[in-house]
Design goal:
Elements (H helix, E strand, L loop, with lengths): L3 E11 L6 H12 L3 E10 L6 H8 L8 E5 L6 H9 L6 E5 L9 H9 L4 E6 L7 H18 L3 H4 L4 E4 H8 L4 H4 L3 H4 L4 E6 L11 H15 L2 H30 L7 H34 L16 H21 L1
Parallel strand pairs: 1-2, 1-4, 2-3, 5-7
Antiparallel strand pairs: 4-6, 5-6
Helix pairs in contact: 5-10, 11-12
Length: about 325
């Protein structure tokens, strides 16, 4: 098996897997031994309600697994947020994030091979998925299609959860105000060199995902990564203001050119259209203000230097060397 001269961190998120996690972690540790020059296992326990934390604590003692770091959360969070807990505490040159129950650790060497060849981000997609309900599949497809339209990336195909990213990419995500939320899509949209790999391996455990939690997570991801929902609100406000203005002109035309108008209709209609016109303008201004505030709070730095190279030849240094040699020559002639 090929060995890679890097320090690798593997981040795992587990919840209520006390019966499986010891064997899983032992298998992963055995796979990493000899694969890289140094490694660490970072396990994030996502608020397990069984005795998982006790079992993990036992694995960190003198007779347990080497290079194991455990973070036990006090409340359950979504998978991406839990994974970010491990990422921001990772020490490796590269960080692999995988679901030990669904992703194949044996595919990691192919991902590492792409990474050492120059890819800062390596994504791996498993062709075999756990079966889900029809409602979940429809909602999942609708969300990915909408996210692709708004942000230009299909999360399921172009940014799967099984990934290998460099420390440089982790530092880039850290500069964003909400790294736990941005972590899912930023590696695919940050401009770093990428590699996409496909493999096929049966999941170790069939996992049924909850549609309600997925919808809530998807909505938060959409709101935090795009201004489109708020732009829709401001567009409707602008349309409402314009429609009321047109209606006011229509009411005035009726009042001026039509004789048989009900008493008080013109004044009442103008009053209502004027009021709704002002309300629409207020909503428009508030919407634009919120869009601006959201942009300031969600967007990262204005720029990020992904790589930096410097020429081995500097003409200014060559000129300095020539002047220095000339001065030594003059001093030598004076001394003679």
């Amino acid at each position: 098996m090929k060995s890679f001269p890097i320090f690798l961190t593997v981040v795992l998120v587990l919840r209520n897997q006390s019966g499986e996690q010891v064997r899983l972690l032992q298998d992963i540790s055995a796979c990493l031994t000899g694969l890289v020059s140094d490694h660490e296992l970072v396990v994030v326990d996502n608020a397990s309600t069984d005795d998982s934390v006790v079992a993990l604590k036992t694995l960190t003692d003198q007779q347990g697994l080497p290079n194991l770091q455990v973070y036990a959360l006090t409340k359950e969070v979504d998978t991406d947020t839990a994974a970010w807990v491990g990422l921001e505490n990772a020490l490796g040159d590269y960080v692999a994030v995988l679901d030990p129950l669904a992703d194949d650790i044996l595919f990691l060497p192919q991902m590492l091979d792409k990474a050492v060849s120059g890819a800062e981000v390596v994504f791996a997609s498993n062709a075999q998925k756990s079966p889900q309900s029809l409602a979940y599949r429809l909602a999942y497809a609708a969300f990915n299609s909408l996210f692709k339209r708004l942000n230009g990336v299909h999360l399921a195909k172009e940014a799967p959860q099984y990934r290998l990213i460099s420390k440089r990419v982790v530092n880039f995500i850290l500069q964003h105000p909400q790294p736990a939320m941005s972590y899912r899509h930023l590696p695919a949209t940050g401009g770093f060199a990428q590699a996409h790999l496909d493999y096929s391996a049966a999941p170790k455990v069939l996992q049924t995902k909850r549609l309600g939690d997925s919808i809530d997570r998807g909505m938060r991801l959409l709101v935090s990564t795009t201004r489109a929902p708020m732009r829709l609100v401001t567009a409707l406000s602008l349309f409402g203001a314009g429609a009321n203005l047109v209606y006011s002109v229509y009411v005035l035309a009726i009042g001026l050119f039509k004789a048989d108008v009900a008493p008080g209709w013109v004044s009442l209609s103008l009053q209502q259209s004027g009021m709704f016109f002002l309300i629409s303008l207020v909503l428009l201004v508030l919407g634009e203000y919120i869009v601006n505030m959201v942009s300031l709070s969600n967007e990262g730095p204005l720029y990020h230097v992904g790589q930096e190279f410097t020429s081995a030849r500097m003409t200014r240094r060559e000129k300095l060397n020539i002047e220095e040699t000339a001065s030594h020559t003059i001093i030598g002639h004076v001394a003679e």
